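Quick one:
INPUT:
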């Protein structure tokens, strides 16, 4: 990510002292200059997956209601392309699948997120996962994903 005021990426901002910490994930440089906050993140990832059955959701591709309503073919085509990209994503051997794709795959992580949001009083009521996914599932029914 490039900061709009400095024109520098996160790594350059860290090196220059502009910021003290950043979430870099897979973009963490492979040198001794940086120290990960979670030292053995792969073991932590494995433990999370063992406990919860999937990786937590970090990013989601969303579509506006307008695009959903007026450009359903484009939404379906984009979904198909994203599905192919997810299927072809490389990951280190033995690491969990961090590219969750498809409404069925997102059910467990969404259930967890809804309950956490409810527990933290970020939402007023619990949402059923089908309530969240139903419109997308209906539009995307029959779209072939690898």
């Amino acid at each position: 990510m490039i900061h709009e005021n400095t024109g520098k990426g996160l790594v350059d901002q860290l090196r220059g002292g502009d910021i003290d910490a950043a979430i870099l994930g897979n973009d963490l440089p492979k040198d001794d200059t940086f120290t990960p906050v979670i030292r053995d993140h792969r073991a932590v990832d494995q433990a999370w997956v063992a406990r919860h059955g999937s990786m937590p959701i970090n990013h989601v591709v969303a579509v506006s209601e307008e695009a959903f309503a007026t450009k359903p073919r484009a939404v379906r085509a984009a979904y198909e392309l994203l599905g192919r990209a997810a299927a072809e994503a490389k990951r280190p051997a033995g690491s969990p699948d961090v590219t969750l794709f498809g409404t069925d795959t997102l059910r467990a992580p969404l259930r967890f997120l809804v309950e956490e949001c409810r527990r933290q009083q970020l939402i007023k009521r619990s949402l059923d996962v089908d309530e969240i996914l139903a419109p997308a599932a209906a539009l995307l029914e029959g779209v072939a994903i690898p």
